[in-house]
Design the sequence.
């Protein structure tokens, strides 16, 4: 018993480090008032240490603490993404002028951020329905507060309020769904759930109801249609850095949870063959894979079409990230290892390009004091390097070669084509064309208009240029050479309990 | 023979030297405009030189098309390899370049037009550095498409062209430039997505057996896709004459038809041409449109011979409509540039009609027409540019009597116009004749109707000559200067080719004949 706990703890270092970081930030905050960057630096160190500890977990495939938390390649891959995203977001926050006003409270900010990261790290590994709900809430509650962090801004408080109401309702529904599932199967860990379901679904109506309710909660967190309403308002009200972590890390973590829950619980054990394609246990009454396919299609259609009409860059990016969630969901509906690997490739590239887009928008907002795309006119001439960087990120989000975004789309489209989901790929293709229009509208305003008379070039500090470089290199490099990423993703499709 | 320098073959150099030039240009300070221009000129001259070397050592007897042994200047390296896993097999994307009779004329044309374009870009004043950097990136993309033999690589080069073209029209274009630029972008991007989906479907349907290890490998290699034996059992695009093969053919066709452009996918072209600056119009009409027809011949025809035969009539009809419709639209224009834009649609219709005939005559005529049309429209767009630079108008009714004002210019422009009209002795005649002869054997009535397009063409061109060069000069154009040395340099090589290929068409036909016969044989299975 003790031995097993000790062993489990040895696989729990990343999370422990984040908890210690959280404590260190609180204690540090007591002594280092006034030095606004100290909390950020502590968190950065903590994240780097946690990242290193996670790297040591590559190759492990087990579930610790009585199979409550999986440490498998799939979780490790996503943990690395979460930590990477968090590192970037901490750096954004340290460079952000939105947060300057709240210098005395930075400790609080980073403490909450650490809490959120902890939740997300556990979310990608959780294999027990109770733990799933618990970490879901840890992440949510920290993010509710973070969204409303700039409390002098009315917009921020309003969006925090909305987020709490929407969030509380949807996690309530998810909790109800989870409890129904536990009731139907009599088990809380997903392997036992799977075994029970494979033995026969005794109450199909309640089972289908529970799946629907779980989808509501997860759909809310991932922000797919029809549970997306919160995203644009909340992104607009939050600071750029928080909007970025919501759009990237929290979405990736929730997707990880969704993939694990659905593939481990709802597949037919008998078909777990070498082929890597899984049959689901869903009945013909409610074919949930097709339902998720429709959700993906709706997210692509609604996200992209609504983004066309946005003028605020944050709202535009919010709708764009709804659309991207749709593309990623295409990988889920396939229920195959190929689908999982293409999700991993997509999320990895999505991290860099989307964070890049948020970061350049933040730089523009700091220097030119505007979030309106209409007011971006001529800004490309006033900030050429940043303008070009923004162009590359947006082009990558569109999915044009030779950028990483193209490879991401290639893999996910390829997986769907090979699994025969032609109608879904066709919708994805059409909506990609639509997305070109709103992404390129930003580029058009930046470069195709002349700047105002007498407007000077903006100055950016060296730190922001380095940051842009760090985000640009993978975005471009992965477009022409992606073997290592694909190899890594391929090794990371191993989900504990399936292999 | 091996042509290598620093470990890279001649085709890699001709594709990537513009990228090198772009990097150099980005390092030159903004104010040093002449250094930027000369760098671009030097880079494109080297390309012309390399194209010359390729021309001089090219073996005309080798077929290419679907046989790797008879491709020339081949470079084949692993680019991306992901090892075997049970569910998809090995993923393999190659850096695979090669040249055959189908592509050699296009490579020469691209090099030449790129050089001419740089010379005529000399008086661009706005953001010179950005202009030439994007220009060279565009050229690299175009050149890459013409030599890529891996579908993935082909696709990358194809899409790389979009963004530079968007900016070149959008920043340096005329008053309606934003509209024209986004229209161009959206149209071609729709095509690009269709091609992407077809490419993926092909990828999962085709697998070749590695002779060394015996494992089955999915591939993007275009040559492997041409071999019916490589289609895996139960693949989406396997078999012959299946619905999915027709759908795939159609998706690719729409992509290429947008680029050519064939009626009804042509509406982006007049807008793009009118708004684009002169050198970009030259590139657009001179080489970019050829990419579409080239893609049909390189991908649609040999990979889907069954669908190509099935849709032959359909292509011929669209070709006919483009010829007649383009010519009538050209006649109705009072903007010089728009007139030439519509004449391009009409002339590219001849290409489609020629290749749809699926016999060697028509095919040779079509490919030769691609080359000739590239040269001729370049001359015509440059002529518009010369007038526009001096008068800032393109209205056909604003001119008159230019023959007295600018005799040298008139002489050169008239050669271009007569060539476009198909006057015997100039290059346009030969290729149009071959296209129609070939088409007549295959589609009699369609060809007879199409040939009337020639009469309409003669009408609008003679009318244009009359309106611009003949008659009385308006008072405000009393002291227009004749051609400058720089303008001469851009015109002369093109005029020489127009006359030379009019008298010795065999110079070009010999290069392409063997490959196109091979292609016809592949598609028709040895004869209709």
Sequence:
């Amino acid at each position: 018993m003790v031995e097993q706990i000790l062993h489990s703890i040895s696989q729990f270092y990343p999370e422990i480090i984040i908890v210690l970081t959280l404590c260190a930030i609180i204690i540090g905050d007591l002594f280092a008032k006034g030095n606004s960057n100290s909390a950020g630096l502590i968190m950065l160190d903590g994240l780097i240490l946690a990242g290193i500890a996670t790297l040591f977990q590559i190759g492990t495939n087990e579930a610790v603490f009585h199979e409550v938390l999986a440490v498998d390649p799939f979780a490790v891959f996503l943990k690395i993404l979460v930590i990477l995203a968090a590192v970037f977001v901490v750096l954004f926050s340290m460079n952000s002028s939105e947060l300057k006003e709240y210098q005395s409270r930075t400790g609080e900010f980073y403490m909450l951020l650490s809490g959120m990261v902890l939740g997300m790290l556990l979310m990608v590994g959780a294999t027990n329905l109770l733990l799933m709900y618990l970490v879901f809430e840890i992440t949510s509650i920290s993010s509710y507060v973070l969204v409303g962090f700039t409390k002098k801004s009315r917009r921020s408080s309003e969006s925090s309020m909305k987020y709490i109401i929407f969030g509380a309702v949807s996690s309530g529904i998810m909790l109800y769904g989870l409890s129904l599932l536990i009731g139907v199967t009599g088990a809380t860990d997903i392997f036992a759930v799977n075994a029970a379901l494979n033995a026969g679904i005794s109450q199909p109506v309640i089972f289908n109801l529970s799946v629907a309710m779980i989808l509501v909660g997860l759909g809310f967190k991932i922000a797919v249609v029809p549970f997306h309403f919160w995203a644009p308002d909340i992104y607009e009200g939050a600071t750029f850095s928080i909007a970025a972590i919501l759009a990237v890390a929290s979405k990736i973590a929730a997707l990880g949870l969704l993939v694990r829950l659905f593939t481990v619980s709802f597949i037919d054990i008998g078909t777990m063959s070498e082929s890597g394609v899984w049959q689901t246990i869903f009945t013909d009454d409610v074919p949930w894979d097709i339902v998720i396919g429709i959700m993906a299609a709706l997210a692509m259609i609604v996200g992209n079409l609504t983004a066309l009409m946005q003028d605020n860059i944050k709202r535009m990016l919010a709708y764009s990230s709804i659309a991207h969630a749709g593309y990623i969901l295409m990988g889920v509906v396939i229920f195959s290892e190929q689908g999982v690997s293409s999700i991993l490739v997509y999320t990895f590239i999505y991290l860099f390009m989307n964070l890049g887009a948020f970061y350049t928008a933040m730089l523009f907002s700091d220097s030119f004091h505007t979030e309106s795309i209409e007011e971006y006119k001529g800004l490309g001439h006033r900030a050429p390097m940043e303008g070009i960087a923004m162009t590359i990120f947006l082009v990558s989000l569109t999915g044009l070669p030779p950028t990483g975004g193209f490879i991401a789309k290639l893999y996910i489209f390829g997986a769907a084509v090979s699994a025969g989901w032609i109608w879904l790929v066709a919708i994805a293709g059409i909506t990609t064309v639509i997305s070109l229009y709103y992404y390129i509208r930003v580029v058009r305003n930046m470069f195709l208009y002349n700047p105002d008379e007498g407007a000077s070039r903006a100055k950016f500090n060296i730190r922001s240029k380095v940051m842009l470089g760090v985000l640009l290199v993978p975005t471009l490099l992965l477009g022409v050479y992606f073997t290592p990423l694909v190899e890594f993703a391929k090794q990371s499709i191993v989900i504990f309990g399936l292999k | 023979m091996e042509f290598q320098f620093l470990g890279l073959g001649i085709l890699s150099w001709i594709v990537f030297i513009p990228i090198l030039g772009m990097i150099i240009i980005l390092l030159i300070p903004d104010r040093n405009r002449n250094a930027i221009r000369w760098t671009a000129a030097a880079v494109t001259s080297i390309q012309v030189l390399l194209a010359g070397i390729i021309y001089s050592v090219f073996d005309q007897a080798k077929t290419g098309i679907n046989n790797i042994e008879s491709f020339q200047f081949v470079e084949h390296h692993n680019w991306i390899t992901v090892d075997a896993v049970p569910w998809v097999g090995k993923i393999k994307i190659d850096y695979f370049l090669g040249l055959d009779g189908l592509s050699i004329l296009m490579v020469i044309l691209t090099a030449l037009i790129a050089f001419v374009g740089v010379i005529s870009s000399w008086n661009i004043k706005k953001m010179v550095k950005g202009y030439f950097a994007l220009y060279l990136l565009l050229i690299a993309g175009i050149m890459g498409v013409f030599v890529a033999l891996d579908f993935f690589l082909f696709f990358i080069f194809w899409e790389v062209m979009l963004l530079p073209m968007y900016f070149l029209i959008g920043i340096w274009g005329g008053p309606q430039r934003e509209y024209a630029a986004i229209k161009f972008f959206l149209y071609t991007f729709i095509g690009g997505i269709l091609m992407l989906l077809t490419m993926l479907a092909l990828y999962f349907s085709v697998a070749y057996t590695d002779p060394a290890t015996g494992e089955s490998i999915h591939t993007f290699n275009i040559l492997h896709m041409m071999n019916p034996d490589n289609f895996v059992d139960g693949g989406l695009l396997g078999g012959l004459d299946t619905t999915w093969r027709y759908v795939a053919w159609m998706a690719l066709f729409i992509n290429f038809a947008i680029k050519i452009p064939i009626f009804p996918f042509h509406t982006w072209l007049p807008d793009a041409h009118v708004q684009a600056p002169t050198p970009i119009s030259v590139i657009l009409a001179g080489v970019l449109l050829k990419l579409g027809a080239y893609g049909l011949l390189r991908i649609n025809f040999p990979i889907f011979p069954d669908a190509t035969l099935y849709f032959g009539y359909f292509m011929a009809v669209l070709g006919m409509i483009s010829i007649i419709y383009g010519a009538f639209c050209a006649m109705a224009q009072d903007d010089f540039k728009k007139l030439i834009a519509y004449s391009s649609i009409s002339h590219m219709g001849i290409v489609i009609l020629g290749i749809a005939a699926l016999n060697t005559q028509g095919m040779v005529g079509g490919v030769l027409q691609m080359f000739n049309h590239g040269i001729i429209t370049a001359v015509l767009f440059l002529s518009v540019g010369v007038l526009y630079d001096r008068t800032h108008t393109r209205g056909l009714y604003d001119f008159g009597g230019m023959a007295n004002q600018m005799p040298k210019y008139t002489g050169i422009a008239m050669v271009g116009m007569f060539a476009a009209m198909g006057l015997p002795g100039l290059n346009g005649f030969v290729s149009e004749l071959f296209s129609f002869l070939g088409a007549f054997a295959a589609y009699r009535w369609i060809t007879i109707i199409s040939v009337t397009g020639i009469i309409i063409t003669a009408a609008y061109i003679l009318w244009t000559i009359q309106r611009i060069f003949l008659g009385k000069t308006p008072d405000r154009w009393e002291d227009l200067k004749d051609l400058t040395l720089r303008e001469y340099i851009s015109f002369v090589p093109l005029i020489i080719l127009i006359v030379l290929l009019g008298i010795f068409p065999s110079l070009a036909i010999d290069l392409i004949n063997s490959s196109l016969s091979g292609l016809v044989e592949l598609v028709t299975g040895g004869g209709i």
